[in-house]
Amino acid sequence: MVSFISMFCSNKYKFKSYLLHMLVMDKIIYFTMKAKKCLLASSFAKFNKAYLFGLINSHIIQYPTPSSLTYAWSFGSLSGFCLVIQMVSGIFLAMHYSPNIDLAFSSVEYIMRDVKNGWLVRYIHANGASMFFILVYSHMCRGLYYGSYMKPRELLWCSGVFLFLLMMGTAFTGYVLPWGQMSFWGATVITSMVTAVPVAGQPLVQWLWGGYTVGNPTLNRFFSIHFFLPFLIAGVSLIHLALLHKVGSNSPLGSDTGVDDLPFYPYFAVKDAFAFFCFMLFFAVFVFYFPNVLNHPDNYIPADPLQTPAHVVPEWYFLPFYAILRSIPHKVGGILAMLGAILVLLLIPYTNTSYIRNTTYRPIFKFCFWLFFADFLILTWVGQKPVKDSFILVG
What we know:
Elements: H1 2-49, H2 51-61, E1 64-66, H3 74-94, H4 104-113, H5 118-145, H6 154-176, H7 181-191, H8 201-209, H9 216-247, E2 261-263, H10 267-288, H11 319-327, H12 331-343, H13 348-351, H14 363-383, H15 389-394
Antiparallel strand pairs: 1-2
Protein backbone atom coordinates (compact mmCIF):
# COMPACT_ATOMS: atom_id res chain seq x y z
CA MET A 1 0.00 0.00 0.00
CA VAL A 2 2.82 2.40 0.89
CA SER A 3 4.63 1.60 -2.36
CA PHE A 4 1.45 2.27 -4.39
CA ILE A 5 0.93 5.65 -2.70
CA SER A 6 4.55 6.61 -3.28
CA MET A 7 4.31 5.64 -6.99
CA PHE A 8 1.08 7.65 -7.40
CA CYS A 9 2.63 10.71 -5.77
CA SER A 10 5.76 10.48 -7.89
CA ASN A 11 3.65 10.17 -11.10
CA LYS A 12 1.55 13.08 -9.97
CA TYR A 13 4.65 15.25 -9.58
CA LYS A 14 5.91 14.09 -12.98
CA PHE A 15 2.54 14.96 -14.56
CA LYS A 16 2.62 18.43 -12.97
CA SER A 17 6.16 19.04 -14.22
CA TYR A 18 5.10 17.86 -17.68
CA LEU A 19 2.14 20.28 -17.69
CA LEU A 20 4.41 23.10 -16.54
CA HIS A 21 6.90 22.27 -19.29
CA MET A 22 4.16 22.25 -21.96
CA LEU A 23 2.79 25.57 -20.67
CA VAL A 24 6.23 27.17 -20.85
CA MET A 25 6.79 25.81 -24.38
CA ASP A 26 3.37 27.07 -25.47
CA LYS A 27 4.19 30.55 -24.19
CA ILE A 28 7.56 30.51 -25.94
CA ILE A 29 5.92 29.50 -29.24
CA TYR A 30 3.20 32.15 -28.78
CA PHE A 31 5.67 34.98 -28.14
CA THR A 32 7.93 33.76 -30.96
CA MET A 33 5.01 33.84 -33.46
CA LYS A 34 3.96 37.24 -32.13
CA ALA A 35 7.48 38.55 -32.61
CA LYS A 36 7.56 37.18 -36.15
CA LYS A 37 4.23 38.86 -36.94
CA CYS A 38 5.48 42.17 -35.54
CA LEU A 39 8.67 41.84 -37.55
CA LEU A 40 6.68 41.05 -40.70
CA ALA A 41 4.34 43.97 -40.07
CA SER A 42 7.28 46.34 -39.55
CA SER A 43 8.93 45.06 -42.75
CA PHE A 44 5.67 45.66 -44.66
CA ALA A 45 5.45 49.13 -43.08
CA LYS A 46 8.95 49.90 -44.38
CA PHE A 47 7.97 48.32 -47.71
CA ASN A 48 4.88 50.54 -47.96
CA LYS A 49 6.86 53.73 -47.31
CA ALA A 50 8.05 53.57 -50.91
CA TYR A 51 4.99 54.55 -52.95
CA LEU A 52 5.62 52.14 -55.84
CA PHE A 53 6.29 49.17 -53.57
CA GLY A 54 3.29 50.08 -51.44
CA LEU A 55 1.11 50.18 -54.55
CA ILE A 56 2.33 46.74 -55.60
CA ASN A 57 1.80 45.39 -52.09
CA SER A 58 -1.74 46.72 -51.66
CA HIS A 59 -3.00 46.11 -55.21
CA ILE A 60 -1.26 42.85 -56.12
CA ILE A 61 0.29 41.03 -53.15
CA GLN A 62 -2.21 41.82 -50.37
CA TYR A 63 -5.20 42.60 -52.64
CA PRO A 64 -8.24 40.91 -50.99
CA THR A 65 -9.73 38.34 -53.37
CA PRO A 66 -12.80 36.12 -52.79
CA SER A 67 -11.65 32.56 -52.16
CA SER A 68 -14.35 31.06 -54.41
CA LEU A 69 -13.02 32.57 -57.67
CA THR A 70 -12.75 30.03 -60.50
CA TYR A 71 -10.58 30.00 -63.62
CA ALA A 72 -13.31 32.03 -65.38
CA TRP A 73 -11.89 35.04 -63.50
CA SER A 74 -8.53 34.55 -65.23
CA PHE A 75 -9.88 35.84 -68.58
CA GLY A 76 -9.39 39.45 -67.46
CA SER A 77 -5.72 39.11 -66.58
CA LEU A 78 -5.11 37.01 -69.70
CA SER A 79 -6.63 39.82 -71.79
CA GLY A 80 -4.05 42.17 -70.27
CA PHE A 81 -1.24 39.77 -71.20
CA CYS A 82 -2.65 39.53 -74.72
CA LEU A 83 -2.69 43.33 -75.03
CA VAL A 84 1.01 43.44 -74.14
CA ILE A 85 1.77 40.72 -76.71
CA GLN A 86 -0.14 42.65 -79.39
CA MET A 87 1.58 45.94 -78.61
CA VAL A 88 5.09 44.46 -78.61
CA SER A 89 4.57 42.42 -81.81
CA GLY A 90 2.86 45.40 -83.47
CA ILE A 91 5.81 47.70 -82.74
CA PHE A 92 8.19 45.19 -84.36
CA LEU A 93 5.93 44.90 -87.40
CA ALA A 94 5.71 48.70 -87.73
CA MET A 95 9.50 48.81 -88.11
CA HIS A 96 9.22 47.09 -91.49
CA TYR A 97 5.71 48.02 -92.70
CA SER A 98 5.16 50.70 -95.39
CA PRO A 99 1.75 52.47 -95.24
CA ASN A 100 1.56 53.06 -98.98
CA ILE A 101 -0.94 51.43 -101.34
CA ASP A 102 1.87 50.48 -103.73
CA LEU A 103 4.13 49.03 -101.03
CA ALA A 104 1.87 47.82 -98.20
CA PHE A 105 1.16 44.31 -99.56
CA SER A 106 4.80 43.85 -100.62
CA SER A 107 6.07 45.03 -97.23
CA VAL A 108 3.94 42.40 -95.49
CA GLU A 109 5.37 39.72 -97.81
CA TYR A 110 8.85 41.11 -97.12
CA ILE A 111 8.23 40.68 -93.37
CA MET A 112 7.04 37.12 -93.97
CA ARG A 113 9.88 36.06 -96.29
CA ASP A 114 12.99 38.15 -95.68
CA VAL A 115 12.90 39.59 -92.15
CA LYS A 116 14.49 37.19 -89.67
CA ASN A 117 11.65 35.54 -87.70
CA GLY A 118 9.27 38.03 -89.33
CA TRP A 119 6.83 35.22 -90.11
CA LEU A 120 6.66 34.41 -86.41
CA VAL A 121 6.04 38.02 -85.35
CA ARG A 122 3.33 38.47 -87.96
CA TYR A 123 1.56 35.21 -87.11
CA ILE A 124 1.71 36.11 -83.41
CA HIS A 125 0.15 39.49 -84.16
CA ALA A 126 -2.48 38.19 -86.62
CA ASN A 127 -3.60 35.29 -84.43
CA GLY A 128 -3.13 37.35 -81.28
CA ALA A 129 -6.03 39.56 -82.39
CA SER A 130 -8.30 36.50 -82.53
CA MET A 131 -7.02 35.27 -79.16
CA PHE A 132 -7.65 38.73 -77.70
CA PHE A 133 -11.29 38.68 -78.83
CA ILE A 134 -11.78 35.10 -77.59
CA LEU A 135 -10.57 36.17 -74.14
CA VAL A 136 -12.61 39.38 -74.09
CA TYR A 137 -15.81 37.66 -75.25
CA SER A 138 -15.27 35.01 -72.54
CA HIS A 139 -14.61 37.74 -69.98
CA MET A 140 -17.84 39.53 -70.93
CA CYS A 141 -19.87 36.31 -70.81
CA ARG A 142 -18.52 35.57 -67.35
CA GLY A 143 -19.47 39.09 -66.24
CA LEU A 144 -23.00 38.68 -67.60
CA TYR A 145 -23.48 35.22 -66.10
CA TYR A 146 -22.31 36.14 -62.59
CA GLY A 147 -23.86 39.62 -62.46
CA SER A 148 -20.63 41.63 -62.44
CA TYR A 149 -22.53 44.59 -63.90
CA MET A 150 -24.71 45.08 -60.81
CA LYS A 151 -24.29 47.73 -58.13
CA PRO A 152 -21.67 48.84 -57.11
CA ARG A 153 -19.86 47.84 -60.34
CA GLU A 154 -21.82 49.85 -62.94
CA LEU A 155 -18.88 52.09 -63.91
CA LEU A 156 -16.56 49.08 -64.03
CA TRP A 157 -18.88 47.38 -66.54
CA CYS A 158 -19.27 50.54 -68.65
CA SER A 159 -15.50 51.04 -68.79
CA GLY A 160 -15.22 47.45 -70.05
CA VAL A 161 -17.76 48.14 -72.82
CA PHE A 162 -15.77 51.25 -73.81
CA LEU A 163 -12.64 49.08 -73.97
CA PHE A 164 -14.50 46.66 -76.23
CA LEU A 165 -15.42 49.52 -78.61
CA LEU A 166 -11.77 50.64 -78.73
CA MET A 167 -10.73 47.06 -79.46
CA MET A 168 -13.16 46.86 -82.36
CA GLY A 169 -11.78 50.09 -83.81
CA THR A 170 -8.22 48.84 -83.45
CA ALA A 171 -9.02 45.48 -85.05
CA PHE A 172 -10.85 47.06 -87.98
CA THR A 173 -8.07 49.53 -88.80
CA GLY A 174 -5.51 46.73 -88.45
CA TYR A 175 -7.44 44.49 -90.86
CA VAL A 176 -7.06 47.14 -93.58
CA LEU A 177 -3.25 47.38 -93.31
CA PRO A 178 -2.19 44.21 -95.25
CA TRP A 179 -3.95 45.79 -98.27
CA GLY A 180 -5.30 42.53 -99.63
CA GLN A 181 -8.66 42.12 -101.33
CA MET A 182 -10.59 41.72 -98.08
CA SER A 183 -8.70 44.64 -96.53
CA PHE A 184 -9.61 47.03 -99.36
CA TRP A 185 -13.22 45.98 -99.84
CA GLY A 186 -13.86 45.62 -96.12
CA ALA A 187 -12.67 49.19 -95.62
CA THR A 188 -14.84 50.36 -98.53
CA VAL A 189 -18.00 48.66 -97.21
CA ILE A 190 -17.62 49.64 -93.54
CA THR A 191 -16.53 53.26 -94.09
CA SER A 192 -19.40 53.73 -96.57
CA MET A 193 -21.79 53.32 -93.63
CA VAL A 194 -20.85 56.86 -92.57
CA THR A 195 -22.91 58.14 -95.54
CA ALA A 196 -26.01 57.15 -93.52
CA VAL A 197 -25.43 60.20 -91.29
CA PRO A 198 -28.00 62.83 -92.34
CA VAL A 199 -26.69 65.89 -94.24
CA ALA A 200 -23.01 65.48 -93.19
CA GLY A 201 -22.63 61.83 -94.24
CA GLN A 202 -20.95 62.31 -97.63
CA PRO A 203 -18.50 65.03 -96.51
CA LEU A 204 -17.59 62.90 -93.48
CA VAL A 205 -16.79 59.81 -95.54
CA GLN A 206 -14.72 61.88 -97.99
CA TRP A 207 -12.81 63.36 -95.06
CA LEU A 208 -12.28 59.84 -93.68
CA TRP A 209 -11.05 58.54 -97.04
CA GLY A 210 -8.95 61.62 -97.78
CA GLY A 211 -10.52 61.71 -101.25
CA TYR A 212 -13.42 60.26 -103.21
CA THR A 213 -12.40 56.59 -102.79
CA VAL A 214 -10.40 54.44 -100.39
CA GLY A 215 -6.78 55.20 -101.27
CA ASN A 216 -3.36 56.13 -99.97
CA PRO A 217 -4.56 58.82 -97.50
CA THR A 218 -7.02 56.28 -96.08
CA LEU A 219 -4.28 53.72 -95.52
CA ASN A 220 -2.02 56.29 -93.86
CA ARG A 221 -4.80 57.42 -91.53
CA PHE A 222 -5.77 53.87 -90.61
CA PHE A 223 -2.14 53.01 -89.87
CA SER A 224 -1.80 56.03 -87.57
CA ILE A 225 -5.08 55.22 -85.79
CA HIS A 226 -4.14 51.56 -85.46
CA PHE A 227 -0.79 52.48 -83.90
CA PHE A 228 -2.33 54.99 -81.47
CA LEU A 229 -5.41 53.10 -80.22
CA PRO A 230 -3.57 50.30 -78.32
CA PHE A 231 -1.93 52.92 -76.09
CA LEU A 232 -5.37 54.41 -75.45
CA ILE A 233 -6.64 50.91 -74.65
CA ALA A 234 -3.76 50.47 -72.19
CA GLY A 235 -4.68 53.76 -70.47
CA VAL A 236 -8.38 52.87 -70.22
CA SER A 237 -7.37 49.41 -68.96
CA LEU A 238 -5.62 51.10 -66.02
CA ILE A 239 -8.86 52.99 -65.29
CA HIS A 240 -10.72 49.67 -65.55
CA LEU A 241 -8.32 48.13 -63.01
CA ALA A 242 -8.60 51.13 -60.69
CA LEU A 243 -12.40 50.81 -60.70
CA LEU A 244 -12.09 47.07 -60.06
CA HIS A 245 -9.80 47.57 -57.07
CA LYS A 246 -12.09 50.26 -55.69
CA VAL A 247 -15.15 47.97 -55.45
CA GLY A 248 -13.39 44.58 -55.39
CA SER A 249 -13.89 41.45 -57.46
CA ASN A 250 -17.27 39.79 -57.75
CA SER A 251 -17.48 36.11 -56.75
CA PRO A 252 -19.45 33.11 -58.05
CA LEU A 253 -21.53 33.28 -54.88
CA GLY A 254 -22.41 36.92 -55.53
CA SER A 255 -21.43 37.91 -52.00
CA ASP A 256 -19.56 41.12 -51.13
CA THR A 257 -19.16 40.46 -47.40
CA GLY A 258 -15.40 39.82 -47.68
CA VAL A 259 -15.41 37.20 -44.91
CA ASP A 260 -13.79 34.60 -47.18
CA ASP A 261 -11.24 36.92 -48.85
CA LEU A 262 -7.65 35.80 -49.34
CA PRO A 263 -4.57 37.75 -50.43
CA PHE A 264 -4.05 37.65 -54.19
CA TYR A 265 -0.47 36.40 -53.78
CA PRO A 266 0.31 33.52 -53.74
CA TYR A 267 -3.08 31.82 -54.14
CA PHE A 268 -4.50 33.55 -57.21
CA ALA A 269 -1.16 34.58 -58.66
CA VAL A 270 -0.31 30.89 -59.07
CA LYS A 271 -3.79 30.23 -60.45
CA ASP A 272 -3.42 32.99 -63.06
CA ALA A 273 0.09 31.76 -63.92
CA PHE A 274 -1.27 28.28 -64.65
CA ALA A 275 -4.06 29.80 -66.77
CA PHE A 276 -1.46 31.88 -68.62
CA PHE A 277 0.65 28.85 -69.57
CA CYS A 278 -2.46 26.96 -70.71
CA PHE A 279 -3.44 29.94 -72.85
CA MET A 280 0.06 30.21 -74.33
CA LEU A 281 -0.09 26.52 -75.26
CA PHE A 282 -3.46 27.07 -76.98
CA PHE A 283 -2.08 30.20 -78.71
CA ALA A 284 1.07 28.36 -79.86
CA VAL A 285 -1.01 25.63 -81.53
CA PHE A 286 -2.57 28.26 -83.81
CA VAL A 287 0.68 30.15 -84.46
CA PHE A 288 2.78 27.10 -85.35
CA TYR A 289 0.24 24.63 -86.77
CA PHE A 290 -2.83 26.56 -88.00
CA PRO A 291 -1.61 30.14 -88.58
CA ASN A 292 -4.11 30.97 -91.35
CA VAL A 293 -7.19 29.08 -90.20
CA LEU A 294 -8.74 32.23 -88.69
CA ASN A 295 -7.83 34.48 -91.64
CA HIS A 296 -9.53 34.84 -95.04
CA PRO A 297 -7.55 33.42 -98.00
CA ASP A 298 -8.61 36.31 -100.28
CA ASN A 299 -6.46 38.63 -98.20
CA TYR A 300 -3.40 36.98 -99.75
CA ILE A 301 -4.46 38.55 -103.06
CA PRO A 302 -3.27 42.18 -103.57
CA ALA A 303 -6.03 44.79 -103.40
CA ASP A 304 -7.72 45.41 -106.75
CA PRO A 305 -10.27 48.26 -106.86
CA LEU A 306 -11.60 46.94 -110.20
CA GLN A 307 -12.41 43.41 -109.01
CA THR A 308 -14.90 42.92 -106.21
CA PRO A 309 -14.61 39.59 -104.32
CA ALA A 310 -17.53 37.22 -104.67
CA HIS A 311 -18.20 37.38 -100.94
CA VAL A 312 -16.92 40.22 -98.74
CA VAL A 313 -16.67 39.15 -95.10
CA PRO A 314 -14.91 40.69 -92.08
CA GLU A 315 -12.84 38.81 -89.51
CA TRP A 316 -14.70 36.15 -87.51
CA TYR A 317 -15.04 38.33 -84.39
CA PHE A 318 -17.09 40.89 -86.36
CA LEU A 319 -19.37 38.31 -88.02
CA PRO A 320 -22.33 38.58 -85.55
CA PHE A 321 -22.54 42.34 -86.06
CA TYR A 322 -22.02 42.00 -89.82
CA ALA A 323 -24.88 39.47 -89.90
CA ILE A 324 -27.16 41.98 -88.12
CA LEU A 325 -26.13 44.71 -90.59
CA ARG A 326 -26.92 42.75 -93.73
CA SER A 327 -30.04 40.99 -92.38
CA ILE A 328 -31.96 44.26 -92.24
CA PRO A 329 -32.74 45.52 -95.76
CA HIS A 330 -32.89 49.19 -94.78
CA LYS A 331 -29.35 50.65 -94.65
CA VAL A 332 -29.92 53.05 -91.75
CA GLY A 333 -31.95 50.43 -89.87
CA GLY A 334 -29.17 47.86 -90.24
CA ILE A 335 -26.53 50.30 -89.02
CA LEU A 336 -28.65 51.34 -86.02
CA ALA A 337 -29.36 47.70 -85.13
CA MET A 338 -25.66 46.82 -85.37
CA LEU A 339 -24.62 49.75 -83.17
CA GLY A 340 -27.51 49.09 -80.80
CA ALA A 341 -26.36 45.49 -80.31
CA ILE A 342 -23.12 46.87 -78.82
CA LEU A 343 -24.34 50.01 -77.04
CA VAL A 344 -27.20 48.16 -75.31
CA LEU A 345 -24.53 46.64 -73.07
CA LEU A 346 -24.15 50.07 -71.45
CA LEU A 347 -27.79 49.96 -70.31
CA ILE A 348 -27.65 46.56 -68.59
CA PRO A 349 -26.42 47.85 -65.18
CA TYR A 350 -29.14 50.50 -65.08
CA THR A 351 -32.06 48.37 -66.28
CA ASN A 352 -31.33 45.46 -63.93
CA THR A 353 -33.89 45.00 -61.14
CA SER A 354 -32.61 41.79 -59.55
CA TYR A 355 -30.89 41.75 -56.16
CA ILE A 356 -29.39 38.28 -56.80
CA ARG A 357 -26.17 38.16 -58.77
CA ASN A 358 -25.62 34.45 -59.25
CA THR A 359 -27.44 33.14 -62.34
CA THR A 360 -27.78 29.72 -60.68
CA TYR A 361 -30.61 31.20 -58.58
CA ARG A 362 -32.19 33.11 -61.52
CA PRO A 363 -33.63 30.41 -63.80
CA ILE A 364 -35.37 32.79 -66.23
CA PHE A 365 -32.25 34.90 -66.66
CA LYS A 366 -30.18 31.73 -67.01
CA PHE A 367 -32.38 30.58 -69.89
CA CYS A 368 -32.13 34.02 -71.53
CA PHE A 369 -28.34 34.03 -71.12
CA TRP A 370 -27.90 30.70 -72.93
CA LEU A 371 -30.41 31.85 -75.56
CA PHE A 372 -28.27 34.95 -76.08
CA PHE A 373 -25.13 32.78 -76.32
CA ALA A 374 -26.78 30.52 -78.93
CA ASP A 375 -27.94 33.61 -80.83
CA PHE A 376 -24.35 34.91 -80.89
CA LEU A 377 -23.08 31.62 -82.34
CA ILE A 378 -25.86 31.47 -84.96
CA LEU A 379 -25.16 35.05 -86.07
CA THR A 380 -21.44 34.21 -86.34
CA TRP A 381 -22.32 31.27 -88.59
CA VAL A 382 -24.77 33.32 -90.68
CA GLY A 383 -22.29 36.20 -91.07
CA GLN A 384 -19.76 34.07 -92.96
CA LYS A 385 -22.37 32.58 -95.33
CA PRO A 386 -23.17 33.98 -98.82
CA VAL A 387 -25.86 36.65 -99.12
CA LYS A 388 -28.90 34.47 -99.80
CA ASP A 389 -32.52 34.82 -98.73
CA SER A 390 -32.39 31.79 -96.44
CA PHE A 391 -29.37 33.10 -94.48
CA ILE A 392 -30.78 36.63 -94.37
CA LEU A 393 -34.02 35.21 -92.93
CA VAL A 394 -32.15 33.28 -90.24
CA GLY A 395 -30.13 36.41 -89.40
